[in-house]
Amino acid sequence: MEKKGHHKKSNKEDNAIEVKIEGKNLEKPAAESARAEEKKEPTPSEKLQAQLDEKTRESSEYFDKWLRLRAEMENFKKRMQKEKADHLRFGNEDLLKALLPILDNLNRAIDHGKNGRENSSLLAGVEMIHKELLNILERFGVKPIPAAGEVFDPEKHEAISQEESDLEANRVVAAVQNGYFYHDRLLRPAKVIVSQGRPQAEKEAPA
Questions:
Q1: What is the pTM of this model?
Q2: 171 vs 59: CA distance, rounded Å
Q3: Distance, CA of 93 to chain centre
Q4: Domain presence at residue 107
């Protein structure tokens, strides 16, 4: 009885060994097959497709670079054209600005002549020179900036003081020095006196 039982145990161990051996033999060919697939060389058509994809990517990059370079060149040309046009249009700016003090002196001479009742023929001569100079400046694109009675605009007016007046607040009472535009560019701002509104006593007076 003991020998028979021992024989049965041996059969179970043999079966277990056989199962393990069979399992090992089944796994080995599958692993080798996977490694073989990994090492498999691409076909000629696959190589050609890969090369085509690479060249397509490179050509796309070169095309993008060309587009950017072209845009930069266009911007450069436009910038140069604008600078050239500005130079032609505003090339006399320094000269015209240098003539403004002469115009200021003629304005003062005319105001002084009118207030002091100077020789009328001399005053008429100064006024004629003043008018001719204004006409020359206007032909080159210089125009006076409106001031008296205008709403104060810091883009073209320079306030030097404020005073009470019949004008509403923030309006120009008078121009102490005329300002000028050069085409659409500010050549010199007008120096002005700005209104603070009516005197406080008039504001508080009963209706």
A1: 0.58
A2: 65
A3: 25
A4: yes
